[in-house]
Fold this protein.
Amino acid sequence: MKTTHQVKAFNVLLLGMSFAGLLLLQGCFSKSDSNSDAANLGKLAGEYTATLTSAPEVPPSKPWLKRPEKVIVNIEVIEKTMKLANGVDYTYWTFNGTVPGPFIRVQEGDEVEVHLSNDPFNKMPHNIDFHAATGPGGGAEASMTAPGHTSVFSFRALRSGLFIYHCAAAPVGMHIANGMYGMILVEPRGGLAPVNKEYYIVQSEFYTKGANGDTGLQEFDLEKAIKEQPEYVVFDGHVGALTGNNAMQARVGDKVRLFVGNAGPNLTSSFHVIGEIFDNVNQEGGSIVNHDVQTTLIPAGGATIVEFTCKVPGTYTMVDHAIFRAFNQGAVAQLQVSGDENPDIFSGKTKDTLYFPDNSKNTDVPGKISQR
Ligand SMILES: [Cu+2]
């Protein structure tokens, strides 16, 4: 039987635990309050139609007004055959005819009014799920659109960050695997710090019936998708979309900001720029900023913003550092940096001489395990 002293101590403990719980709850609420959702829901200042860009281009930032605005976003779903790799065609399902779909740039608090049109020649119904939206399905049900129809719905961009959008019509995985995704940036109040270059990159996988490199029109392979065994892992929808003549450009001294998404549908990306260290990484596209990062994880259905400064000229290769995806499946992009050499930071090769190893250490005798 408990003594009075033990009961009192137990009661104090309970009281303490409830108080701690209350503090935790308050912590959650105060974080929510600090995001000032309510403050963003004031009267709209006006209305405009969003400027949309195809990857890797990013629309410019709009000057800040005191109050949010209504932003009209026009998107058309087009099913079309395009080149997936050299000699390999694929019937993509697209937003606005490109993979990824257009980059949308709005400001925190804006009302985003989406007009989703489904081309009358398409075979499938489609919709759009915005990860930036607060509401059922991110707008998927509200935007379900049959071929030859246009749906309109709106959401309030309550939270700033970089968000994926994608088609969520059944079977969802197939619509994503066929190219129906893109990104929306909700700029925080006051905007992002100015930089010299901004680019838009989305990683995704393609599951084709034929093996990697098999030519001709390739069909989607559901079994490979379920087993998470893609034939292609690419940036911006196609092998070579951002390499060679399509490489992104910058100059020595430029601050570069990459808006990087991962549409999946299955794999997590280990995003890395060979020869650069990220000054800043907005982890998962949210508000936590990390510094001095070599490789950052991007979950399927997630995004990140990375920034770095170009200090040495040359070609910088971007990869998913799950490295066979890069060099065997296509997950490679390039940034070409032009400008003056900077030998104080990077010398390049300064010497190449002949090398003669010390043969006395060579213990390669048949039947004997080498000690080297
Ligand atoms: Cu779709």
Notes: Confidence is low (pLDDT under 50) at residues 6-34. The first strand starts at residue 47 and ends at 49. DSSP finds four helices and 21 strands in the chain. Helices lie at 4-34, 172-177, 222-226, 324-329.
